[in-house]
Amino acid sequence: MPVDPRTLLLSLGVGLGLAAACGFRVFLPLLVLGAAARAHWVPLASGFEWLATPPALGAFAVATALEIGAYYVPWLDHLLDVAATPAAVLAGAVASASVLTDLPPLLRWSVAIVGGGTAAGVVQGATSLLRLGSTATTGGLGNPLVATAEWVAAAAIAALAIAVPVVALVLLGAVVFGIQRLARRAFRRSPPAT
Q1: Which of 21, 84, 104, 173 could form a disulfide with 157 if both were Cys (CB 3.0 to 4.6 A apart)?
Q2: DSSP of 24-55, one letter per residue?
Q3: CA 182, 94, 67, 152 torsion: positive or negative?
Q4: Closest CA to 161 of 4, 16, 43
Q5: Contact of 80 with 71, CB cutoff 8 Å
Q6: Whole-angstrom distance, CA of residue 33 vs CA of residue 110
Q7: How far is CA 84 from the centre of its chain?
Q8: Is 140 helix (H, G, I), strand (E, B) or coil?
Q9: Contact 36, 93 (CB under 8 A)
Q10: Separation CA 53–CA 35 (nearest Å)
Q11: Spatial separation of the C-alpha atoms in residues 187 and 163, rounded to whole Å
């Protein structure tokens, strides 16, 4: 059965948008995806129906609340950045694979790992640099603002990825570009170590 190119492009947009959102917060995009699938707004690939089950949604909701709250604890936010990088890459790959409904499994997972995992890793890396820059320039006082911006971005990009995938990808590019510029600026301003 041939793959419809428009359906494939939309699925890729949804998958990459969700994966990138996982780079901001690991569990929030999976919660948004599961809720959207449960409401029949987004189809899931075979084998991923579990994402829309009540136990999975409950687990994602609790994990999301704990993850968001933990980023407001000064010393815990840096520890979470270390653990969040591999978790974000894995969550990004799962989120991507779950919406690539028209691809054979080998191709689905190849695209999900390379595209989704990379998108999540790039965003996670950029936000880690931003947090380091915030810590260097504000002594950590600016980190709650960064944490708020990150979870808001995760929610917005995940919702946009499902509703308007093309807009989500454009917004994501702009956000990553902005984070990169802020991080560079913060590192240039930080005082030299003595």
Answers
A1: 21
A2: H-SHHHHHHHHHHHHTTSS---TT-GGGGSHH
A3: positive
A4: 16
A5: yes
A6: 20
A7: 10
A8: coil
A9: no
A10: 9
A11: 36
**Residue pLDDT, tens place only, 102-160:** 888 999 999 999 999 999 998 998 888 888 888 888 888 888 999 999 999 999 999 99
Contact 161, 13 (CB under 8 A): yes
What is the rounded distance in angstroms from the CA atom of residue 17 to the CA atom of residue 45? 17
Give the burial string for 69-99 (b: 16+ CB within 10 Å, else e).
eebeeeeebbebbeebbebbbbbbbbbbbbb
Q: Which two tokens stand for residue 193?
A: 């170590």
pLDDT one-digit tens code per residue, 55-75:
999 999 999 999 999 999 887
Output b/e per residue, 156-172; b: 16+ Cβ within 10 A.
bbbbbbbeebeebbebb
